[in-house]
Every structure is written in structure tokens, then in C-alpha cells.
Amino acid sequence: MTSPSLRNVVAGYGTVNVLHGVSLDVPGGEMAALLGTNGNGKSTLIRAILGIVPVSSGSIVLEQDGQRWPLHEMRTEAIVDLGIGVVAEGRRLFGNLSVRENLLLGAWRRAARRLRERNLDAVFEAFPVLRERAGQLVGTMSGGQQQMVAIGRALMTAPRVLLVDEPSVGLAPAVVKETLAQIARLKTTLGLTVLIAEQSFHQATAIADRAYVIAHGAIVMYGDDIAAAGSGDAVREIYLGA
């Protein structure tokens, strides 16, 4: 199994730190939810794992096949080549390209190129509507369908760890529920380790094995049963600001 761990991570942009001593674990084959409202550091944490945001102190380590990889010391290209895929916030698709063309852009690393057709079939099996609309320009699709393409493109990288950043942004509540359920199914069927950064507290905790609540760049609550505390005063104060 593949398992990323963060220990006392401080990271940010220039001289401004956004993460302040963040520690969390995502055991192999599990899904961890990183919960919090906008501006609290969820996306920065995802980017730090990918090597996009520099880590000024602390460590990010990937345990994989008996080896330990110090991601905080590696370039983004090398991190992705270890099998870490990402579904970016806002989807970041090419609207003037077709569904198939967007998906194939995900199969750029060597391991993914060898498995390109197999992975494309797996994506079409997971999202049958994408097979039906393989030639359609992505810019003409609904938000929910575009999110399917974004998830599919990440799967085309042949990931072992999947980072999902704010999949609910811009989607109707019913579509959010189905999108999160599909991510949970993919975790199980493909044996993925998943870290999902999300604002939808109850929907995310319903599918996650464990959860962390982040506020002002620090983990303020964590556990495998945060959902049970969802109606409590502590969660309302920390997470909802109530």
C-alpha cells in the first residue's frame, strides 16, 4: 500500500506561511477528508504534497513498497512519477478540446503511457457518459460532467494516491453527493489511497475513513468519527464559525 504522512509541516508563499505545523496521515487504501472553509489552507496543503508550494520546515513522506520518499525535498515531476495524481480545484480542463483529448493529456508519465488504453477503458467504465461523449468539447458540458472528466484525467496518470481538491465547487448539491460517492467507489475498486479537501462537511465525512478539520492553517480536530461530532458546538465554532 501507498501512504503519505505529514509531520509538523510549515509552508506558504514567499514570506507568508499558510500552514502552521500540520501533521496528518492517510493510511494505504483509506480515504481521509481534509475539512474546512475557504482560506484555511486546504489547497495549500495539497500543493505542498505535490511540491508546488515549498515546505520551510517539517516533512512530507510517502511510504511505498517498503521505501520512504521525502516529497518535501523532491520536484513536482518526480512526485507525480511516484503515482500521485491530482484533481485540481476548479477542474482546470481545456474547454476547446474533446473529452478524449483531455483524458489522454493525463497519460503523460511513462507508466501511464504504457497503460493508456487500459486506463481509458477504466475511466469510461467508471463514467459511461464520457464514452458516449468522447468527441464532445469539454467547454460545452455541464459542471458535473466536467468534474467527471477532471477525475478521469487524474485516473489516466495511473495513480496510487489521489489528491482531490474541492470537488464540490460550482456543483449542485445532488451532483456533489454523486461525485463524492463515485470517488469513494473508485477508491475501493482501484485500491487507491485518497486525500480529499472539501467544504461539504457531512457529505465528505459520510464517505471518509478519517477526517481532519483545518482552521487558520492548523489541524484543530481529527479522528475516525468526526461525523458523529458534526452537530456539536465545537464543530460549529471551529468549522462553521457559528
Overall description:
This protein is of the alpha/beta class and 242 residues long. It has a domain at 2-83 and 160-240: Rossmann fold, CATH 3.40.50.300. It is 36% helix and 28% strand. The protein has helices at 42-49, 76-81, 99-104, 110-114, 116-126, 128-132, 143-155, 173-190, 201-207, 233-240; strands spanning 2-13, 16-25, 31-35, 55-64, 67-70, 84-87, 161-165, 193-198, 210-215, 218-223. The strands form two sheets. The protein has a six-stranded mixed β-sheet, with helices on both faces. A four-stranded antiparallel β-sheet has the order 2-1-4-5, with helices on one face. Strand 4 and strand 5 form a beta hairpin. The longest helix is centred in the C-terminal third of the chain and has 18 residues, at 173-190.
